[in-house]
Design a protein that fits this description.
The chain is mainly alpha-helical. 61% of the residues lie in helices and 6% in strands. Helix 1 packs antiparallel against helix 2, helix 4 packs across helix 6 and helix 5 crosses helix 6.
């Protein structure tokens, strides 16, 4: 797929050197590559770049969101803050730890295996002690009835 994009950008440079309009170039790419052709916006952008004198066909490296936000250190930081106060919202946790809200949500749901119940973060699975306590309470309620 990347090879086709590279080929199409080369074709765009060729069309620019032939002084063809961007719409003509786009139509030719659609005819040649069918559904795998670049979108109109991409063709027009690349056409403009080459008209302005750009000669490189390769894409420039882009800065993006860091993929290293979900580290073991951040998981521990989220775990400790949730243990201190289970009523914190994702927004509060993310602002306090200076993390993305989506990252905090992923850490809580996937790594810590927790979910929100009645405005409180709780583990999805009960411990054996919690299960035993629940049984005792249930039997007590049954006896009262």
């Amino acid at each position: 797929m990347e090879q086709q994009k590279f080929e199409q950008r080369c074709a765009i440079t060729f069309c620019v050197k032939l002084d063809e309009y961007a719409t003509v170039t786009y139509e030719k790419l659609k005819w040649a590559y069918g559904e795998h052709s670049l979108s109109g916006a991409q063709v027009f952008s690349w056409h403009k770049y080459f008209l302005e004198g750009r000669e490189k066909v390769e894409e420039e490296p882009r800065a993006g969101r860091l993929s290293t936000l979900k580290t073991d250190d951040n998981v521990e930081r989220v775990r400790s803050i949730v243990r201190l106060d289970r009523r914190l919202t994702l927004r509060m946790i993310s602002s306090e730890l200076n993390l993305n809200r989506f990252t905090v949500h992923q850490i809580i749901t996937r790594d810590l295996d927790m979910r929100k119940v009645c405005a409180k973060m709780v583990p999805k699975n009960l411990t054996t002690e919690q299960e035993a306590n629940r049984r005792v309470v249930c039997f007590d309620l049954l006896d009262r009835l």
